[in-house]
């Protein structure tokens, strides 16, 4: 597993947390929640791509000849 993917997900999490805090301080609670939801969706899409690669590898390992 590549380490850069972990750093990307952590970076997205940090940026999302900072944006959420800033927006919440300015009284934009709805926009803060939307920002958090967008960050979670981006990370989820990255994880889905990783799982797709994993299942492809598992399929090739257990494929019968």
Helices and strands, with pairings:
Elements: H1 3-25, H2 29-61
Give the gist of this structure.
This protein is an all-alpha fold and 65 residues long. It is built from 2 helices and no strands.
- What percentage of residues falls in helices of 4 or more residues? over 70%
Number of domains: 1
Spell out the helices and strands N to C.
HH
C-alpha geometry: elongated
Strand content: under 5%
Structural class: mainly alpha
Mean pLDDT, all residues: 92
Distance between the termini: 27 Å
State the total count of DSSP E strands. 0
Largest sheet: none
- Mind telling me the C-alpha Rg? 17 Å
Describe the structure.
The chain is mainly α and 65 residues long. The protein has one domain (3-61). 86% of the residues lie in helices and 0% in strands. The chain has two helices and no strands. α1 (3-25) packs antiparallel against α2 (29-61). The longest helix has 33 residues, at 29-61. The mean pLDDT is 92.
Structural key phrases:
65 residues, mainly alpha, 2 helices
């Amino acid at each position: 597993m590549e380490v850069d993917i972990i750093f990307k997900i952590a970076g997205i999490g940090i940026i999302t947390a900072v944006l959420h805090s800033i927006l919440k301080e300015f009284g934009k609670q709805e926009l803060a929640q939307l920002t958090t939801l967008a960050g979670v969706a981006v990370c989820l899409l990255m994880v889905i791509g990783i799982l797709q690669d994993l299942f492809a590898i598992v399929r090739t390992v257990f494929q019968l000849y």
